[in-house]
């Protein structure tokens, strides 16, 4: 991987981690288009890029970080734990690009749901568990975590501000948990290292672009413009299905 490729992939991570278009799906797609066949050899690079995108959340939501350990965030995170039992087979099955198109289309459907469907505001802890369950869908490459959580919260009657805030407070334990799983994978299966400058390029690119993408998402949700990404995911899903058809 060259520094230019690292900068591009880091920027892709920074944009897609926050905008509702799936970071995992775009990274797989980007790596494939660059000709990287053995994607499991880039786990450390992906991990460093995830650290880069975690920093914008921590800085922009610093005054609310204490809520990360609140009851709502804990309940919203619980649906992720059963996935640990099936994480490896799911990732090995669906990391194949030929499936990505279907999951990009699923993201489009989730975003459309958030725009069109409104239910009575759920009460108690039940709504946070539902939002956490939708977050669990993002284990599938091509399904956007932010798109799933924000859309499900809005469907449940949450305001735009509540939906964005809870989505990214919920993201912190999810990203940290993913980093732990990836770190354990690295310990079990050591990989050849890339040049330090490549890792640095990916880190700073994902962090800087991530700041802009997160700020943009907050503004788009406030202005009820999230549905624009429905068309993007539809077009990308169709393109991916056509490009990687078997």
Describe the structure in brief.
The chain is mainly α. The chain has helices at residues 3-18, 23-33, 43-60, 71-77, 87-94, 97-116, 126-136, 145-155, 160-188, 196-222, 228-243. The protein is 71% helix and 0% strand.
What does this structure look like?
- The protein is mainly α and 246 residues long.
- The chain has one domain (3-243).
- It contains 11 helices and no strands.
- It has helices at 3-18, 23-33, 43-60, 71-77, 87-94, 97-116, 126-136, 145-155, 160-188, 196-222, 228-243.
- Helix 1 (3-18) runs antiparallel to helix 2.
- The radius of gyration is 17 Å and the shape is globular.
- The two termini are 27 Å apart.
Key traits:
globular; mainly alpha; 246 residues; single chain
Distance between the termini: 27 Å
Average predicted local confidence, pLDDT: 80
Tally of DSSP helical segments: 11
The figure for the number of domains is: 1
How would you describe the shape?
Answer: globular
Structural class: mainly alpha
Report the biggest beta sheet as strand number plus sense, adding barrel if it closes.
none
DSSP, total strands: 0
Could you estimate the helical fraction of the residues in percent? over 70%
| β-sheet strand percentage | under 5%
Rg, nearest Å: 17 Å
Q: What letter string, H or E per element, gives the SSE order?
A: HHHHHHHHHHH
Unreliable segments (pLDDT under 50, ≥5 consecutive)? none
